[in-house]
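Q: Could you fold this chain for me?
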Amino acid sequence: MKSSYEIAQAQFDKAAQKLHIPDWIRDSIREPERNLSVDFPVRMDNGEVKLFKGYRVQHNNTRGPYKGGIRFSPKVGLDEVRALASWMTWKTAVVDIPFGGAKGGVICDPSKLSKTELERLTRRFTYELSSIIGPDMDIPAPDVNTNAQVMAWMVDTYSMGNHKVDFAVVTGKPLFLGGSQGREEATGRGVTIVTMEALKELKLEPKKMSAVVQGYGNVGSFASKTLAEEGVKVVGISDATAAIYDAKGLDLNDIDKYLKKNKVLFGYSKAQTIEPKEKLLEQPCDILVPAAIENQITKENAPNIKAKLIVEGANGPTTPEADEILNQKGVLIIPDILANAGGVTVSYYEWVQNLQREQWEYDCIIAKLKKKLVKAYGEVSQMSRVEKVDMRTAAYMIAIRRVADATEARGIFP
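A: Sure. Below is the predicted structure, expressed as structure tokens.
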């Protein structure tokens, strides 16, 4: 199977060749501008010192400061981070917010670290990045296994080093430290906003639709709940431990109570357990939301997928080979760089609030989010029809054109 970075490059190449942009521009925006790898020591609670490896890839900043999350995971690798950084560039461009793309991560298992060890690791990693991040340079955010608390530690470490408080250095912070209303739910709610636009275009009634959501973390849980608010029947969900399905519809409130007590979905008995859990993707439904990790829909399982509409809550969940199979089947795929752009959109609003020393109301932020995503969906859909290409290629064409135009206008230094 191709790596995430190879997939990201293939998606770029497919769209770029349709745009006929100058070779020097195409080549310069295709590759990351900076790949930083750092090895740093952290003292454990028992006094032992361990060495950790971290990355920050800055893909492109032609249209604005680099922007992208920080993840803590044993599976973090440079290729993965490079792919995620490039997807961020296209994501910010397709929804037309003035950011570029970046991503970062540390190879570690946070579940095996105490809170104090996690804090020391975060602070030391922030110090290692301190010369290349900043409100006008590169703005990190939460990602896999990081959260508002991790962002608070990053803010404090950066601020101490610069001898002034600067909340705008990261987004996804606690509300009382310059965070934004609506940020936690933004990615999942964004998935629902574009889903509703797609159903409207397909002339399908939400209340007659069923959905399967793979992944019940931040994105999947909020996508499930907001889809249910729109009348969609959620029939299947999964987490890292189990997948469950009920054609009559799942009781999400009951599932949330179970998760609050048990932490994981494994053992939930009020719905059918799907084994292996990856088979959840193949269960009967109208809407499929892969909201877990990369490379979940492949040429092996794509022929068995029954959904009419796939909305990519995760980054890179569908391989190029699966794309071809699903497009031939007439499945409409809303690509990740559009479908899950709600998070970075509200991150942009958080950054703006920090710079202006303001805090906007929840309803204002959600209205702005909806307006931004509805407009972006309309532009991608129109491009798809005019150019007779799938939605992913259309989204890339819009994003690449915006970055290419900015690159050409800025020219070459010196």
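A (continued): The chain has two domains: 32-177, 186-339.
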